Amino acid sequence: MPDPSDVATMRFSTAALPERERVAMLRDFIGPVMARFDVEPLGDEPVHFEIAARALPELAISTLAFSPLRATRTRALSADGNDSCLLSWIHSPGNILEHRGRELKPADDTGTLLSMADPFVATTLSGIARGVSINVPRKVLSAMVPRLEDNFGLPLVPGTEALRLLESYVGLLDQRELATPELRRLAVTHVHDLVALALGASREAAEIANGRGLRAARLTAIKADIRAALAEQGLSLTTLAARHGVSPRYVQVLFESDGITFSQFLLTERLERVHRMLRDPPQMGRSISTIAYESGFSDLSHFNRAFRRRYGATPSDVRAAARRET
Questions:
Q1: Residues facing 96 on adjacent strands
Q2: What does the domain layout of the chain look like in residue ranges?
Q3: Does domain 229-325 have CATH number 3.40.50.300?
Q4: What CATH number labels 8-224?
Q5: Average pLDDT along the chain, 326 residues, taken 10 residues at a time
Q6: Rounded to an integer, what distance in angstroms lies between the CA atom of residue 79 and that of residue 73?
Q7: CA-to-CA distance for 13 and 66, rounded, in angstroms?
Q8: Using alpha carbons only, what angle is made at residue 249 by residues 248 and 251, rounded to the nearest 5 degrees?
């Protein structure tokens, strides 16, 4: 029996189609069949639409980029039994939303909540818009957010920590965070927590979410920051905490809750970067010391000892083995 926690992925881009076939594909298949919208391209520029979607139990996350269009959740389509909540935000000006008798012109990067059980029309008028949508069952959010229905068709308060961390968290989810059924279930719970906090969770739900989903999102963002800044010689707990607006002790606690210290995580990431580069054919002509330095190591003796402890071989041994394999 297949694992019900498995993640399903889907990618599509009109760039793979001849231009003359793109409108028909959007109108006849991508819109009504896959996305469950009627889609009408607008303007005279070439049609562009791309989507990367991941579906897990009780959660679907999509990232999109598209040229001007109008997406309509018609009354007929909204009778398909899907009563979930769709939280989305578009990185583009010129958006118009009609939902539950309201017309809204959300500002660039403002989140909105839509009910998939009700008709709505979303229009984007300018440029290539980029956006994220998160689909969560209504029953999940109803249990966490008082007066959930009041949020439909209204802009979310922009710039809140929960909304910022939510967008960051769903953007950073990768194979490491989704590698096992247990990790996938955790990721779903964390997203539920962050969505509820962004919408106004009850006191009890907020207390749980702050200690669970919010902490996980902060740790994920901090880890991503570390991986992007491995070459910084002065990368420290203090500087990292300052970047994220928290205390050094709080960062320590986040890592300890993950079963590792900040120093251990940083060292491991730097060693793994060096190891990858040593085995990378385009890097074969570069010296080991240069690679180590560019990965954040300032003391070569410390680097060599740490590398050998982790991999049971010297950097030269790893490079020589990689050369023999090519």
A1: 123
A2: 8-224, 229-325
A3: no
A4: 2.60.120.10
A5: 61 92 90 88 90 92 94 93 92 88 85 94 90 95 95 86 91 79 92 95 96 94 94 91 94 94 97 96 94 95 96 96 88
A6: 10
A7: 10
A8: 65
